[in-house]
Design goal:
The chain contains five helices and four strands. By secondary structure, it is mainly α. The chain has a single domain, classed as CRISPR-associated endonuclease Cas1, C-terminal domain (Four Helix Bundle (Hemerythrin (Met), subunit A)). The protein has a two-stranded antiparallel sheet with strand order 1-2.
Amino acid sequence: MLAKELTGVCHAVGLDPFLGFMHQPRYGRPALALDLMEEFRPLVADSVAISLINRGELGPEDFIRGANGTFLNERGRRPFWEAWFRRLDTEVSHPEFSYKMAYRRMLEVQGRQLWRFVRGEALTYHGFVTR
C-alpha cells in the first residue's frame, strides 16, 4: 500500500516512479517509489501492522491461509484500512522545516525534495527521520 501511495506521489511531483537509485528497475516495479518507501516503511507500514496485532484488532481468524500466501479476509480488512488511514493522517514534525504535517503530506514533501535534488535545485536530499 505504501509503494502505491509513493508511486502516485512520484507521478504527482513529476518523477518517474520506475527509475530508482537503490532498487533496480524491472518491468512493472516502481523502483523509485520503493527507494522513497525505505524511509517510511518502519514509521507507516510496519507500525500499522504491529499495532493491529498488539492491540488485538487483528487475530488469526482475520486471515485466509492458502497455497499462494496469507491474506486478510473481509473481517480483517476493515480494521486494517481504518488503521492505515489513521496512520496516514497522523501529524509529525518535519526535521528540516520544523512544522507539523500528516504522513500523507510528508510523503509528498519528500517526493518534492527528491525532485528538487535530482534537478539540481537543492544540494542535498534530507531523508525523513523522527529522531
